[in-house]
Design goal:
globular; about 30% helix; disordered N terminus; alpha/beta; about 240 residues
């Protein structure tokens, strides 16, 4: 895969950059005295506004790949570009800014603060942005509305179902208005009905233009995506049918 030419182009005619471009990406680390090749020569492009799932066996490199996509780590070799930013060349401050403003995360565990209301939990995700109170409150209300929880903003996590708690976690993620949402087993703790609720909420967000990358073991989740990738022994394959 070739990294794009960085020659300036007229903004009115330039095509939108992909959300991600990975070229020749390797990630190697040492574990208990042995060298682990977590990723080996990964080449993949994820388009802006795409909905992609990543499957594969435990230990196949999924968590490592997600850390790179989330700007939580940098590759041992190769290039990971988020828009036009190459993570390997980015400063710690640039990586922190990407995580704060461009990328949002949702995990299998809801990670809500039990003593705070849903609205307060969402607001906590906006702290790094330094918004004034009016803007913060507007974003909280908008995010809760987008996941169908406008009437639950004053409820604490213990007063919500598992599916509702995960929707609060999604609202917290999207309140900062990221370009990309990375989800790691977001339905892993939910029954089938709640799983489908969460998938529907994510699909609506993707239809609005949010780039969505979901790591999952659940084929029922994977088949809802437009693209399916499989990561096994550090190598990636497109298995979309």
């Amino acid at each position: 895969m070739t990294i794009i030419d960085q020659t300036p182009t007229d903004a009115s005619t330039a095509p939108a950059l992909p959300a991600y471009r990975l070229a020749g990406v390797t990630k190697t680390y040492t574990q208990k005295g042995r060298i682990v090749h977590a990723l080996e020569g990964v080449d993949v492009e994820i388009g802006t506004g795409d909905f992609v799932t990543i499957q594969g066996p435990t230990g196949g490199g999924k968590s490592t790949l997600l850390q790179l996509l989330g700007a939580l780590d940098v590759p041992t070799s190769g290039h990971v570009l988020i828009g036009d930013t190459d993570l390997a060349a980015a400063s710690p401050a640039q990586l922190a800014s990407l995580r704060a403003r461009e990328i949002a995360f949702v995990f299998q565990s809801f990670n809500l603060i039990p003593t705070l209301t849903a609205a307060e939990n969402v607001a906590m995700g906006l702290e790094p942005l330094g918004l004034d109170r009016a803007e913060r409150d507007a974003r909280v209300a908008d995010a809760l509305a987008r996941v169908g929880l406008s009437e639950r903003g004053d409820h604490r996590p213990g007063e919500l179902s598992g599916g509702q708690q995960q929707r609060v976690a999604i609202a917290r993620a999207i309140a900062k208005r990221p370009r990309v949402l990375l989800a790691d087993e977001p339905t892993g703790n939910l029954d089938e009905q709640m799983r489908d609720e969460i998938l529907t909420a994510l699909e609506h967000l993707n239809a609005e233009g949010l780039t969505l990358v979901v790591v999952t073991h659940d084929s029922a989740v994977a088949t809802r995506a437009r693209r399916r990738l499989r990561l096994d022994r550090g190598a990636i394959h497109d298995i979309t049918r």
